[in-house]
Amino acid sequence: MKRLLRLAAVGVLTFMSGAAAHAEYPEKAVTIIVPWAAGGGSDATARIVAKLLEEKLGQPFNVVNRTGGGSVIGHTEISKADPDGYTLGNITTELSMFHWLGQTELSYKDFKPIGLFNADYGAIFVAANSPYKSLQDLVDAVKKDSKAIAGGGANIGGVNHLAWASFVQAAGGQEPFWVPSEGAAPALQLLTSGAIQAAVVQFPEARALLEAGELRALATLGTKRNASYPDVPTVEEAAGLDVSISGWRGLAAPLNTPDEVVSKIEATLAEVTSSQEFIDFMNSRQFGVNYLGSADFEKYLADRDAQFGAALKAAGLAKE
Amino acid sequence: MEAFIQAVGLITTPQTLVAIAISCTFGLFVGAIPGLSATMATALLVPFTFYLDPIPAIATVIACTTMAITAGDIPAVMLRIPGTPSSAAYAEEAYAMTRKGQGSLAMGTLLVSACIGGFIGFIVLALVAPMLAKVALRFSSFEYFWLAALGLSCAALVSGGGMIKSVIALLTGLAAATVGMDPLTATPRFTFGVTELSGGLSFVPAMIGLFAVGELMRGDADVRAASGGLVGGVFKGVGSTLSKYRYSLFRGAGFGTLIGALPGAGGDLGAWIAYAFSKRFSRTPERYGKGHPEGLVEAGACNNAALCSAWIPAMVFGIPGDAVTAIAVGVLFMKGLNPGPQLMTENVQNFYAVMLIFVIANALIIPLGWLAIRTARRLFSVPRHYLAGVILIFSIVGSYAAVNSLFGIVVMAGFGVLAWWFGKAGIPIAPVILGMVMGPLVEQNFLTSMIISRGNFLGFFERPISATLGVMFIAIWLVPLAIKLTRRLRAP
C-alpha cells in the first residue's frame, strides 16, 4: 500500500512538473492566418507583427495566406481554428461588413480580439494617361453616366467598394459600377492597362506605381490629408463631398482562446506596436500606427459594425 | 559602373557567400525530394533571413528558389515525379529518355539549358527590366484570359496519348479547380458544406498524388532500369545536343523571359508553351514523347529564364508574380529594400547585387546539380520496395505541409487513385495539373473581363493585344481542323 502511494505520488509529481513545463505559452510555432494575398498591405503588416512577436516570444510566428472569397475563407478559417492560442489571425475591415452583406454570418462576435495595430484611409487613383485630371473631372463624369466609369480596388462589399459607392452617391451618380478583384495589385494592373477608369486603394499599395509615374492620385478619402502625400487634397477640399471611410487591421484569436494566452499576446503586441522598429516600418510604408488593447478593440469593432451597417444601407448594398 | 563595383563588394562578403552556398544546397535537397516543393523550401528559409543583412537575406531566397526549381527536374527524370508544375510539362519525355538508358543525357541537358536560360534571362533583365515591366503593366484581365487559354491549348495539343485524351485530362483538372468558393463573389461550389472543401483542392497535394502516389500504385516502373539509365557521365553528349538544338535553346530562353515578366501567369505556363513550340517547329515532331531531348532543351531554358524575369514586376512595381516572389517581396520590405522604381534609381547597387546573385545561383546549378545526380544514383541501388516506402512518407509529409491539414493527404490519395485509373485508360496526367493551376486564373480573368465589358463577348476583341491573342487561340484550334477537312474533301 505504501509502495502504491509512493508510486502514485511520483506519478502526480511527474504529471505536475509536466504541466508546469507546458504552462509557458508559446511552447511551439504559432500560425498567423492572413485572409489576403501575399504582397498586399494586410500581408505586409501581419508579417512585421509576426516577426516582432517572434522576437519577443521566442517561437516562430508563421504567416499563412489563406486567400479567396473576398477574405471570407481566411476569416472563417481563423474563427474555426483550435482555440489553443497556436492559430491566430489578422482580421481586417471586411469583417465589419460580411453579415450586413449576407456573405456569411461571421462577425466580430465570432472572434476574441487581441489588439488593433493599424487604421488608415484610402484614396482615389486614375492612370497617368487618364482624361480625368482632377477629382472634379471624375465627379462630373460619374454624374453624367456612372455606368461608364468602372471602379476597382478589391472585392465586392469591401471597404474600397463601399468608399466608391458612397463617392458615386455623393457625386450625384446613379448605380456605382464596381469591378471586383482579389486585392489592390490586380486592380492596379487593370487600371494601368486601361481596363477600368478609377481605383480606390490605400496609398502604400499604390506607392511604387505612383513613384513610377504610372498613376495619379486624385483625392484621399480621409478627413485630413495624408502626411506622406501633402499635395493630394481630401475629397472635401477637391470636390466639396463628404466621403470618409477608413479601413482597419488587427490581431484576433478564435473565440474561447484561454484568457491568459490572449493577455500574454496582448501585452506583447502593445510592446511591439510601440517599438521603434514597428513604427519605422509602418512609416516607411505609410501605414497608420493605431494600437488598441483587447477590450478597446472589441468596442471599436462594435462601433465599426454599426457604422458600416449604416453606410452599407445608405449605399443600397446591405441585405435586408 | 561605380555602383556595379559596389554591388560586387556587397555580395562578396563572407556572410553573403555562405548564405548562397547553404541555401543553394538546401534548395537542391528540398527540390529533389519528390513531394517537397520550391515554395516550401523558400518559405522555410524566411525565418532565417530575419537574422541576416538585407543582401544575404535576399540572396538566400533567390539561391534557394533557383536551385529548388532546377532540382525539381531530378525526380521528374528518374521517377516520372515532377517537383514543380513546370517540370510536369516534360516529366513524361524525360522519363522516356531514362527508360531508354539516356537518363544522364536528359538530366545533363536540363541542367545546362536551365543554366544558360538563367543567364540569358539575367542579361535581358539587366538591360530592359524597366521597359519589360512597363509592357507587363499593359496586360489586363482580357489579355490574361487569352494567355491562359493559349497555355491550356498547348497542353492539350502536345501531351502524349492523343488530343481527345489530353482534353479529357485537362478538363478534369479545370473541373477540380472549380471546387471551393467562386473567386469573385465567394459563392461556395461543390463544397457539400465541408469547410476544407470551401478553400478548394490545392494543387500541391494533388500533384504529389497524381505523380508520386500514382506512380507507386502503378508499380510497374522499373527503378533499377532507371538507375541503369544514369550510368555514364552526366554531361556526356550534352554539348552536342545543345549545339544541335541551339535555336530551341535561345527561343526557349527568350520566350521564358517574356512570359515570366507577366505577374501571375508566367512561371507555370512557360515550360508548357515552350515545349509545345518546340514540338511545333521541330523537324522531327514524331519523336516527341518517346524520349527526345529537343523539347527538354527549350522547356528547361524557358523555366529558368522565366524564373529570372518573374522578379521584374516584383522589383519594379511591387507586384509579385507567384508564391515564391511574393515571399521574396515580403523579405525585401522587411529589409528596407522596398520594391519600386527607386530601387533602381536611389540604391542601384542593391539592384545590381540582386542581379549578381542570380548569376551566381545559376552558375552553381551545374556543379551542385552534378553532385545531386551522383548522390541520387547511389540512392537507386536501394531496393525498390524500400525506396517506394520512403517516397510515400515524403509524399504524405509534403501533402500535409502544403495545406497544414490532414485534408491534404486525403486530396493526395484521391488524386493518386485517379492517376492510377487514368494510367490504365492511357490518359496523360500532366494536363490535369496544368488545368488545376490555371483554372482559377482562367475563371477569374474571364469573369472580371465579362464584368468590365458588361457581358459583351466582343470585349475580348476590342483591345489590340487581346484581339491578337484571341485570334491566335482560334487559329491554334481551327487551322489543324481546317487542314484535315480540306485533305478529306480533296481525297476521293
From TrEMBL, chain A:
Family: Belongs to the UPF0065 (bug) family.
CDD domains for the chain: PBP2_Bug_TTT
Signal peptide: 1-23
Matches recorded under Pfam families: TctC
Protein name, per record: Uncharacterized protein
Alphabetized UniProt keyword annotations: Signal
UniProtKB/TrEMBL annotation, chain B:
Domain DUF112: 17-434
Secreted as UniProt keyword: no
Superkingdom per UniProt: Bacteria
Keywords attached to this entry: Membrane, Transmembrane, Transmembrane helix
Membrane spanning stretches: 20-46, 58-78, 105-132, 144-177, 197-217, 310-331, 351-373, 385-401, 464-483
Record carries keyword Membrane: yes
Protein name stated in the entry: DUF112 domain-containing protein
Organism: Nitratireductor indicus C115
